[in-house]
Amino acid sequence: MARVDLTVRGGGVTGLALAWEAARRGARVRLIERFRLGAGASGGLVGALAPHAPEQWTEAKQFQLESLLAAPAFWAGVEQASGLPTGFARTHRWQALADAAAVALAETRARASETLWRGRARWHVIPRPDHAFAPVSPTGLLIEDTLTARLHPRLALAALAGAVRARGGEIVLGDGQDEGRVIHATGVAGLEALSRATGQPAGQGVKGQAASFHCPGFETAPQFYAPGLHIVPHADGSVAIGSTSETTWTDPEATDARLDALIARARATLPILANAPVLHRWAGLRPRARSRLPLIGPWPDRPGHYLANGGFKIGFGIAPGLAHCLIDLVLEGRDAIPIPFRP
Ligand SMILES: Cc1cc2nc3c(=O)[nH]c(=O)nc-3n(C[C@H](O)[C@H](O)[C@H](O)COP(=O)(O)OP(=O)(O)OC[C@H]3O[C@@H](n4cnc5c(N)ncnc54)[C@H](O)[C@@H]3O)c2cc1C
Known about the structure:
Helix content is 32%, strand content 24%. Strand 1, helix 1 and strand 2 form a beta-alpha-beta unit. By secondary structure, the chain is an alpha/beta fold. The strands form three sheets. Strands 5-6-4-11-12-13-10-14 form an eight-stranded mixed sheet. The mean pLDDT is 96. The protein has seven helices and 16 strands. The chain has three domains: 191 residues, FAD/NAD(P)-binding domain; 54 residues, no CATH class; 84 residues, 2-Layer Sandwich (D-Amino Acid Oxidase, Chain A, domain 2). Flavin-adenine dinucleotide binds next to helix 1, strand 2, strand 3, helix 5 and strand 10.
């Protein structure tokens, strides 16, 4: 008899969340990571778990909403099983409103959120509070949403690995043998492998650069968002900022003047960051499927093999939902994967 029911390839947030979900349900799990946990996009700094705007609703937006709503229980379960922190907290998010048109749009979205979010969280317009993380807003108003959360990517991966091991799962670094069913959660390398196997482009890596500051005192402050800039306070006294979005690059792991510009923008946006020292600079490749949607389901023409990829910019946000829905299929034969996500 096989010693393992399920092999998961890839030690990023997707693979680890899948391994945890399967181990939690009692499966015998082996996770194989070819380099080190967090070697890909998941080893970064930002950790914003932020919803799409409540408008032009799609199946993908509903999937992300369900995943964000499931996140508190999911990460609490990981912390409980591992005894390790993930840095998860639903700390909310603020966005500035530049003019009357922006306020009117925000009010429309606020009304839409009442139906779409079913009272589980709020998107509303508030007067700008007197708080160091409140962005300057020409209208004196901000959008506040109470769904947005944050977690610490590197702590979350360590806690997921601890939780998998606590339930008897194996984590293998380097070469490992596939046994049982196999889920390929291998990020950009997985998109390349799928492209080769099918002869059709499955997706590509999109480079992102991020940084973190040492800025204690704001551990529970809401995060800040403006197009192209997330500013996320973390529980360890760091404040992460992200991210660039680059479709061409020479070195996927190098940081450069684009990150310097982002750091300067963050310092200009929130004066408390003006003199805060930079702790880390980091770059990685986000796995973006051709559809720009998550890619989840059976690997075409490869019985017993499955794909979990395409997390792109929201891989941490959708990990609980993705793990739940793919493990439902792999272990229990229940298929509720949204049609647009299927390979
Ligand atoms: C700058 C930046 C900022 C981001 N900010 C956020 C954010 O705030 N919120 C959010 O939700 N998302 C964010 N993302 C996106 C998120 O990081 C990704 O969507 C997510 O990490 C993808 O996880 P993954 O596990 O699918 O892939 P990866 O993390 O890339 O993991 C794939 C792993 O598979 C391994 N692997 C490859 N081939 C094999 C093989 N054959 N066998 C075994 N292992 C293999 C790789 O070494 C790698 O460790 C950001 C990304 C970047 C780059």
